[in-house]
Amino acid sequence: MPETHQARHPVKFYQVGSFAVGNRLLDEADRTVQSDRERTNSLTSGHRACQGCGEALGARYALDAAMRATDGRMVVANATGCLEVFSTPYPESSWRIPWLHSLFGNTAAVATGIAAALKVKGREDIRVVAQAGDGGTVDIGFGCLSGMFERNDDVLFVCYDNEAYMNTGVQRSGATPPAARTATTEAVGPEPGNRFGQGKNLPLLALAHEIPYVATATVADLHDLERKVEKAMSIRGSRYLHVLVPCPLGWVAASSETIHLARLARETGLFPVFEGAHGEVTDVVKIRHKEPVEEYLRLQGRYKHLFGSGARPDIVGRIQEIADRNIARFGLVDEVPPDEQSVGKQP
Amino acid sequence: MSQQLIQGNEACARGALAAGCTFFAGYPISPSSEIAELLARELPPRGSVFIQMEDEIASMGAVLGASLGGRRAMTATSGPGFTLMQEHLGYASLAEIPCVVVDVMRGGPSTGLPTSPAQGDVMQARWGSHGDRATIALAPGNVQEVYSLTIEAFRLAETLRTPVAVLYDEVIGHMREGVVLHEPTPEELGRRTAPRAAFSPTFLPYEPDENGVAMLPDFGRGYRFHVTGLMHDERGYPTSDHVKVAELLERLERKVEPAVAAVPPERYRLEDASVVLVAYGIVARTARAAVDLLRREGIRAGLLRTRLLWPLPAPALTEVSSSAELVVVAEMNRGQWALEVERLAGGKTVLAPYLKAGGSVITAEELAGHVRRLAREGVAVS
Asked: CA torsion, points B295, B296, B298, B301, in degrees to nearest 10?
């Protein structure tokens, strides 16, 4: 047996005894991968992500979970984008895994090739993960990704969605939400910011390819993210995981608000957290405390033009309609029977 | 007219607006994104179109469609995006679709050096698409010239019905200089060819005018015609007649020749020069300083600064290779244009290019040092 990756790279904990490091006060079975001293530390410290970067957090949790699920036998193909840039500034790398930077749009195809090569060499124990930002997934990378889905190649594709091209200076992508200001969707005119439209809902497009596993997650619930990665690695064929990762720079939000914003995206219904397989939604994470979208939008400078002087409650209303539609479509809020409602109101 | 302190990429966007560009489709890429960002702000309020596409392939496709629809259309990108656009550029050349493509060059190949300057896309601009493609590529050497040559690129594209590339490096793209944003005259804007008769069943959309440029109408003008990337005859219909195909390729090559006279080179201290530096883009600026350094040391140096890369400015290059004892092509690549100059010089002079690829600009001192070394070795006579 080859020496496992973990054995070569013992993890250093910087916050010894901290609850934040990974729920070490919980029962062992309930603890996160990150609480494990034997975890791989795939994306290690010293990288140059911004303070409060959701993508760095999401990638670390996703890949460490995938490494545990594959017993350290894994190759990662990474598209051009923020994650690639901040993790590998010349001449350094923060990756402690076999890692390949492909091009911007071809990551899914390159991962397909790696998986196919491993298969013909009889090394299907080595698993392949492809990862990209939203631009590399929903825009320039979509053709290759769709092909990978169609062939059902044995790859887990993870999209870290921060809703714009942050690396090149915050230009819109096909995943940018309506009304958000970016460098190419200025907050001017009767419909300021990004236009209202269908958007490009990649999780549903992935589902439409009837691949064996599709899931969404946010960095607000990292345990849920880890669980979904582990589940994805237990399945063969094409799998797709879409992780919402707030970006303090592009969203013009405080770096301390990253987790809060990810949670609000879920609790408003703007970002439905669900799992699906073979074309059907199989499970959703219910909204626990439903919040109006305004609570989410107000914290972000990219929506500043909707509030204050010249406020646009009509646009906020249209965004609320999107959230309400998601809630109805995915059943994100449990219908409470009238008798239970009255019970709940009693002192 | 007063000057404005603006960045190279802004000068490009301003030049495009002055040239009547009413359509931009593009995709973010360093170091060209500022062009798209500025046009995203400026085009929609004028009733013009800015579209951010899903990649460079789609961007170029949209530009071609818009151009056939009658718009002055452009895109801006850098090396990796320029690579993705190449198939479209071949199509545009053959189908005679006017368009402007700005390539702000960064280090390559592949993702390369996204924020460092280079001049490595020179041959790609010439031969990036398959087949014998005639092409025009301009190379501004300062921010003012980014403005004026962007306007000239539109004029050449429209009047000659061909794609025109504007190539400059990251330093020029991000450098700020005082620029006079003059309003172009109607002559400087140029006009696209158009059919001379109303539509009839015998109408020939690809009939060339006296300059060898097809008189293709814009879509929506009442003409019915075909546009195709297959070899075609004057009717626009596919043909495999080898005589007609050979004639078409020859005509397309001949029709871009007026660019040589339209974009003349700049001559600096060339009158009595025995050592001629040949440069373009940012390197031409340091080469000019190198000429002054060498002159002070008694070496009779001069500079031929070209602003046109393709078609090759053959007369000027032939002239200096006949008159100079030493010709030094200085460029930020592994020797792309230098090979063309060598081919053209045909052994008439000594050629000793100074090449530097790696992401930094050739300095005046480096270039002067190169010439001094050659002089010491007896290659150049002062």
From this structure: -10
The structural domain count of chain B equals 2
Q: Which of A95, A26, A90 is nearest to A67 (CA)?
A: A95
Domain span including residue B301: 264-376
Interval B76-105: pLDDT, tens = 999 999 999 999 999 999 999 999 999 999
pLDDT at B373: 95
CA-to-CA distance for B177 and A337, rounded, in angstroms? 70
Q: Are residues B179 and B74 in the same domain?
A: yes
Among B132, B166, B189, identify where a domain stops.
B189
Regions of chain B with pLDDT less than 50: 382
Q: Are residues B183 and B95 in the same domain?
A: yes
Give CA–CA dist A113/A293, Å, rounded: 42
Structure tokens that stand for B67 in this block = 């151009």
* Cα torsion through B78, B31, A129, A231, rounded to 10: -130
Q: What's the token pair of residue B320?
A: 């200096």
CA distance B19 to chain A (A): 21
* Distance (Å, whole) CA A275 – CA A240: 10
Which residue from B33, B41, B55 is facing A169, i.e. has the nearest CB? B33
Task: Say yes or no for a CB contact (<8 Å) between B52 and A188.
Answer: no
Candidates B28, B45, B55; nearest CB to A168: B28
What pTM does this model have? Answer: 0.91
Residue B270 and residue B357 share a domain? yes
Closest CA to A160 of A46, A43, A45, A296: A43
Domain assignment of residue B65, yes or no: yes
Residue finishing a domain among B159, B189, B219? B189
Nearest CA-CA distance, residue A43 and chain B, Å: 22
Residue B244 falls inside a structural domain: no
Asked if residue B185 and residue B270 are part of one domain, the reply reads no
Residue B55 shares a structural domain with residue B167? yes
**CA B331 – CA B344 distance, rounded (Å):** 17
What is the pLDDT of chain B when averaged over all its residues?
96
B80 in contact with A, Cβ within 8 Å: yes
Residue in chain B nearest A85 by alpha carbon: B114
Distance between CA atoms of B46 and B22, rounded to whole angstroms? 8
Do B268 and B303 contact (CB within 8 A), yes or no? yes
DSSP state of A255: G
B52 has a chain A CB within 8 A of its CB:
yes
Q: Is residue B343 part of a domain?
A: yes
pLDDT score of A339 = 60
Q: How does pLDDT run across B329-372, given as a tens digit for each residue?
A: 999 999 999 999 999 988 889 999 999 999 999 999 999 999 99
Complex confidence, ipTM: 0.89
CA angle B268, B294, B299 (to 5 degrees): 95
CA distance A100 to chain B (A): 13
User: How high is the pLDDT of residue A341?
Assistant: 53
**Rg over CA atoms, chain B:** 21
Same domain, B164 and B19: yes
Under DSSP, the state recorded for B279 is E
Pair (B36, B126) in one structural domain: yes
Do residues B31 and B118 share a domain? yes
Q: Note whether A103 contacts B30, CB cutoff 8 Å.
A: no
pLDDT of A346: 45
Cβ neighbours around B157 below 10 Å, total: 27
Mean pLDDT by groups of 10 residues along chain A of 347 residues = 48 48 63 78 92 97 96 96 93 93 97 98 98 98 98 98 96 97 94 91 97 98 95 98 98 97 98 98 96 98 96 98 97 76 47
Give, in order, the Cα–Cα distances in Å from A315 to each of A182, A188, A320, A321, B147. Answer: 17, 13, 9, 10, 39
Tokens 């729920």 belong to A23
User: Which CATH number covers residue B53?
Assistant: 3.40.50.970
Return the pLDDT at A199.
84
